[in-house]
């Protein structure tokens, strides 16, 4: 048994994958070798464009018409998959090899019920009768903790939440007890609480089914949590491979070290820390450097690195790295270059009697939904229901919570994109409870917004320069002959430069588009910028660069910010004050450092326990919320969190609205549980002391 277990389920050796283009064959993956044994998880991590998904698609031969494997072997349970016919591979896919995609709707047919799609797997690959297959599917849905699985079988995909859709896809992948499960960014689009539940599920299923798992992600925290072994990819190559502890605690490749320095740790804050993005970007596969592919971005580069392409070699027991000087890199103490500041200027400290720049009192934003009954009364979705926040000049308020809690609706109401149903909205002493069309030009200039998806806000027909120039002419009345110079100055502030002036949005990367969106937002020198998930879809290096950029803008211009994010490590690093929202209410607010230590609101405690940390030594309590967020159309009575609260007191939580409790220093908690009891709760996260690389 031990001998069989030690044999790899999947062994990839010297794999190369190329795509046919008009310019000839372009090699997207080169010299990739790894193996995965039964019951083991291999995590593959790296920036976008490094070849992670291409390797996965190569294993199951989903490379498209113009893609092909040009070299190497893929041994699955001892049999080579390279050169197999499409029919042979089709029998393997969905049977012995299963794949879970980032977007579950890619794997689900929107026109078929869930039960039909799940049953088909067993009918086709196992020859089961329909009735027996349906019973087996219900059992598997129960195994992935799907509530009311019999009802889910009758639903269509669009009638499920994102987390439920992903559980259906995972159940579908496991129906035939596959030997190999490939998961490509399966939790990227999920809330942190749903992500934690899915990752728990992956760990349990690995133990129960003894499946070999290949887990692809750009999130270092997720990789640290689920992986036994980690492979770091860069520009189509594996540059480091070792156990999760060795890679995260003692990386030997400069790229791996660079990724670690891009990620804010939970104990970091902007006053005493700095994120160090990796300079430059991943080279395109048709224009690689002649020597080491990481040499143009490497802080340790030497002349020989530009001439010699290193091999992946064993640099320590069980630790492989593709670097000529890996042993020295692991031993050396990294220091930032002179052009990168080691600390940003301190945030503006507001006087106790200073009037807030933004003051929101009892904000309510409701949406009318027609009743299904004939002549029935219209129902109200209470997206924001009684929220009060304030932000003083030069400071940053972070807003966190699950999808549907009202974060985005709140900032859209503040900026004027949504109509307020009630409450007071005061900005710079002016009432802004009116739509943007009725606001003065001065208020519009001073209140700008950066959106999550820059593609939806940049006009594809206009150049970068034209789009940044518009607010300059509109808000600041910059003379025509001076506009270009001012746009160039803004582009240089964004670390882009004049060469981007005439480019169209389609010629930019995601991070570059986001920088253009930020440049356009600050072009009119606004007093406040509202940022709605501005870094959630970015690679860690680009995320670090954008966060640094926003902090530099705040330090240089004194800009006040409201920052929405689902990553609590980023919010802790970036924000001065934090408001935690749940189902239209703020349930906890206060200084950033106070939110991350007891006393917690039970919802905040659950959010913190769900955050994946890029450190396998972090000790973290496991608190998982049962059920989904209730509908804002019919929110629970009393405390809205009582239906999911692990610390529910009893009927008082169901009947009565909680009181605000003052924990001191501006820290307030909206909960029935006495502060004395909340203070006795142990810290959710214990972060070990770290030494710099």
What descriptive keywords fit this protein?
disordered N terminus, eight-stranded mixed β-sheet, 26 strands, globular, Rossmann fold, 693 residues, 31% helix, 4 domains, alpha/beta
What topology does this entry show?
Layout: H1 2-6, E1 8-21, E2 24-37, E3 41-45, H2 52-59, E4 67-76, E5 79-80, H3 86-92, E6 97-100, H4 114-126, H5 130-143, H6 149-153, H7 162-174, E7 180-184, H8 192-209, E8 212-216, H9 220-226, E9 229-234, E10 237-243, H10 244-249, H11 254-262, E11 313-316, E12 319-321, H12 326-331, E13 358-369, E14 379-391, E15 396-400, H13 407-415, E16 422-427, E17 430-431, H14 441-446, E18 447-450, H15 464-475, H16 480-493, H17 510-522, E19 528-532, H18 540-557, E20 560-564, H19 568-574, E21 577-582, E22 585-591, H20 592-595, H21 602-610, E23 619-620, H22 651-655, E24 660-664, E25 667-670, H23 675-679, E26 685-686
Parallel strand pairs: 3-8, 3-9, 6-7, 7-8, 15-20, 15-21, 18-19, 19-20
Antiparallel strand pairs: 1-2, 1-4, 4-5, 9-10, 10-12, 11-12, 13-14, 13-16, 16-17, 21-22, 22-25, 23-26, 24-25
Helix pairs in contact: 4-5, 5-7, 15-16, 15-17, 17-18
